[in-house]
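Could you help me review a protein record that somebody else here produced? What it holds is a sequence and that sequence's fold in token form. I have pasted the whole thing underneath without changing anything:
=====
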Amino acid sequence: MANYDVTITNGSGAARMQAGTYNVTATAQGYSATSLAPTTFTATAGDGSQTFTMLAEGTLELIFNETGASGGTPITSGSVVMTDSSGATKYGNVVSISSTGVATFANVPFGTAESPITLYFQQLSTDATHEIKSDIISVSLSSSTTTSYVQNNLLGEQTFTLSDSTYTGLPISGTLNFSNE
């Protein structure tokens, strides 16, 4: 039986193989080679397929705050998920944003300084005083540990006046209560 090196691009690859059972190893930047599963493949006389998985070795901290830089006032809750570049496909579980504004993604892939891996994220919720980041968040990972800051602006301030309907301009002290319809 022959040996085969199959190039995988964007998650897919193919090769014409002789029928038989093969031991399989893999290398991919940012992934643990020992995490490959399964480690054997049996090719049949006809067409066949197999899905393999590997565990990424990186950690990403997304820090959500008012400045999008170190030292900004953090948001106090929310959630975020990894997506494709359009936000249409979601990958993995939704991650909570902590009371200090941090969302930690474990086991993320990473590249090198010359060839970083870009991952995309979508913020799903935020605390009661900040706007959700509406754009897809793009992060380039070139090392096993990466921190990236995301700006969440304060909600716009609404200004109200309350005055007497008979005596125009006479200010009233009281409370306006707003509820969702």
About this structure: The radius of gyration is 25 Å. The chain has a mean pLDDT of 95. Residues 30 and 147 are 16 Å apart (CA to CA). The chain has no helices and nine strands.
